[in-house]
Write a structure and sequence with these properties.
Helix content: 10-25%
CATH superfamily of the largest domain: SGNH hydrolase
CATH class of the largest domain: Alpha Beta
Strand content: 25-35%
Distance between the termini: 8 Å
Radius of gyration: 21 Å
Number of strands: 22
Largest sheet: 8 strands, antiparallel
CATH topology of the largest domain: Rossmann fold
Structural class: alpha+beta
CATH architecture of the largest domain: 3-Layer(aba) Sandwich
Number of domains: 2
């Protein structure tokens, strides 16, 4: 439904390193890098805090692209770090299988012309542009060496992807022998490409349904993945950026910062963003703190206003069924219905509606999932249900 509404070796002075970091996106001196406005995100993960640490280890992390490109850069985040983060020997390559990469595709990335960077706590860094052929719907391996103790790592907890941790600096190795696996992402928050055909990026902002919690690991069957496949099949070139955090809420921090608190970083600051789809966060508000529907609607209005102030189209998603989950009651259902009625109303301010509720509920019992779309917990859709959500997106 649419509506008209329309950085650097350890031991160098940190201050100097951070100065280099600030100019990283411009590329090394003399390099003819793409203009900043030509970058479009092809993959992303929303940063969260963690207590995990690393010391003289290499992370090799696998990302599944949404659109192709002729140049690539990565974004690293120390949003929740307690001190400066040193990163060096950073590589990007096509993934072969497991932790292995295609040797001929391996390239080192630089930051301000240097082999690494230091990122201040709360800050981020962008690598220099690299001429590199990126395919749509393919796997890239991003490897980075962490030479010193990192302190608490900025992470994305529910990666649903095997990533790899190895001892020492092995970023340039084809295979990582003896590496352990992890299902989370660390420090890597985005991969961007240059593609002249790109219309822009759509950001999926949400909670566990957006994060793909009931989809298979290593399957790339979250609904934003399904949306990327749908758009590519239709001939459109639109980056799809998944900014879901399992357990996330609209109004309160908890499992990650609230949608209100992370909206600038996770939506407005994404490269090439033109659309945002706000999805399932309010379900977690309702099943935890139980705010009034008017509070949720006010929070939604704030997000809509902030998006419109930046010229970004805002698509509102209705809330999926929750009857059968622990804590469900008639009051919760009344509030869910009120939020959905607001979203479907003509004066909501939404530029369009993704009707996840209609796409997934049992028509004979609308407060419940269709049996064939239910993961079994009556809260999360299975992969068929996630596909139904992607099919409901139209912009």
């Amino acid at each position: 439904m649419k509506r008209a509404h329309l950085t650097l070796a350890a031991g160098v002075a940190v201050a100097a390193l951070l100065a280099t970091q600030q100019s990283a996106s411009a590329g090394p001196a003399g390099a003819a890098g793409p203009a900043a406005d030509t970058w479009t995100g092809t993959w992303s993960a929303s940063p969260q805090s963690s207590g995990d640490t690393f010391d003289n280890q290499t992370l090799r992390q696998i990302v599944h692209t949404s659109i192709s490109g002729t140049s690539v850069r990565i974004r690293l985040s120390n949003a929740f770090g307690s001190g400066p983060l040193t990163v060096d020997d950073v590589h990007v390559a096509q993934r072969a299988s497991g932790s292995s990469v295609v040797p001929s595709s391996d390239h080192a990335l630089t930051f301000g012309g240097q082999s690494g960077t230091v990122i201040a706590p709360g800050a981020s860094a962008v690598s220099d542009p690299l001429s590199f052929s990126v395919g749509a719907g393919t796997d890239l391996a991003v490897s980075l060496h962490l030479p010193t103790t990192t302190g608490p790592a900025t992470t994305h907890q529910t990666g649903l992807q095997d990533n790899y941790v190895a001892t020492g600096d092995v970023s340039g190795d084809t295979d990582l022998t003896g590496a352990r696996t992890t299902g989370s992402y660390y420090f890597l928050s985005g991969v961007d490409v240059v593609n002249p055909a790109a219309e822009g990026a759509v950001v999926a902002l949400g909670a566990s349904i957006t994060d793909g919690i009931a989809s298979g690991s290593n399957s790339n069957r979250r609904w934003p993945d399904d949306l990327a496949s749908k758009l590519n099949a239709s001939g459109r070139t639109v980056g799809v950026l998944n900014q879901g955090i399992s357990g996330n809420q609209l109004l309160r921090d908890g499992a990650g910062q609230s949608a209100l608190n992370r909206f600038d970083r996770d939506v407005l600051d994404q490269p090439g963003v033109r659309w945002v789809i706000f999805s399932d966060d309010p379900i977690n508000d309702l099943t935890s703190a139980a705010p009034g529907s008017d509070q949720l609607i006010d929070g939604l209005k704030q997000l809509i206003s902030r998006a419109h102030a930046r010229g970004i189209t805002f698509l509102c998603s209705t809330l999926t069924p929750v009857e059968g989950t622990n804590g469900w009651n008639a009051d919760l259902e009344t509030k869910r219905a009120a939020v959905n009625a607001f979203i479907r109303g003509t004066d909501s301010g939404c530029d369009g509606v993704v009707d996840q509720d209609t796409a997934t509920h049992d028509s004979a019992h609308p407060t419940r999932y269709r049996t064939d779309l239910d993961s079994g917990d009556h809260l999360h859709p299975n992969e068929k249900g996630l596909q139904a959500i992607a099919d409901a997106v139209d912009f």
